[in-house]
């Protein structure tokens, strides 16, 4: 129902400067480095195709196929680089690039597979969702550190062999890779604000379904606190490149949760209390065959109160359900529109 986009630390593959090189063989240091850089460009493009499909609503079969192609491309590039000779007995840059490829492959194939497994259970609770996103961030950080280390080796190799690195400019692919990380980094904190109250509301609805009055009150109070705290966080969340749609949509939903918890749910609890009290009254009433006028009047009043309570309860529930569904649908639509606008599309 609610969309969770998985951004990837693998976007850091393009941490390689362009190189001035004219020679056409590995006797030239510039060409030697360009070959390695080209392998990373190939993988970066394959990653963008995979990411584009996964974040723009493509079917799971296509996304899986693109991931497999990406893994195959990483393996092929790793073999291409490992098959290169050392450059004038200097194999440092080549071997560092191969090690990075191995880490890259393992991150996508093993680490992210574990994360995907975590994703399958992440929506069971806020803590699991938070742990899932933290695990993803840790993998991203590992890839970031590996990419930075490889960049150091690249710079050292270039300096040792008199290669001029072109810095400061970014090509289209590198810009897209940056957009992938930037978009995901903005979305995830807003999503967690949404999810914390959304999940708490689900616990509240479960307590209502079970007619658990204590559970209703506990979850109602917790929902109020989560939603209020979420609204405070959203007040300090800036727009993303002028787009404030996620924050606005999330605010509307959290404002509904505050209203629900403070204004509407107390009437639900009141109905269940009246229903419970009437149940006890009816048991006592049924124990006796003869009743006084006062007892009959009290019983009839109880029936009337419960019947009126049912009407109020049903009307309140119907109104809450409709508004809740509309706001969640609006949130999902805002998320889809956000990714359609800001997440790069690459075929």
Describe the protein's architecture and organization.
The chain is mainly α and 347 residues long. It has two domains: 9-169, no CATH class; 195-342, no CATH class. It is 78% helix and 1% strand. It is built from eight helices and two strands. It has helices spanning 29-55, 60-82, 92-122, 126-160, 172-209, 213-235, 245-287, 293-342; strands spanning 18-19, 165-166. It has a two-stranded antiparallel ribbon. Helix 1 runs antiparallel to helix 2, helix 5 runs antiparallel to helix 6 (213-235) and helix 5 (172-209) runs parallel beside helix 7 (245-287). The radius of gyration is 30 Å and the shape is elongated.
Brief write-up:
With 347 residues, the protein is mainly α.
How far apart are the first and last residues' alpha carbons, in Å?
26 Å
Strand content: under 5%
Please indicate the count of domains.
Answer: 2
Largest sheet, described in full? 2 strands, antiparallel
List the helices and strands and how they pair.
Elements: E1 18-19, H1 29-55, H2 60-82, H3 92-122, H4 126-160, E2 165-166, H5 172-209, H6 213-235, H7 245-287, H8 293-342
Antiparallel strand pairs: 1-2
Helix pairs in contact: 1-2, 1-5, 2-3, 3-4, 4-5, 5-6, 5-7, 6-7, 7-8
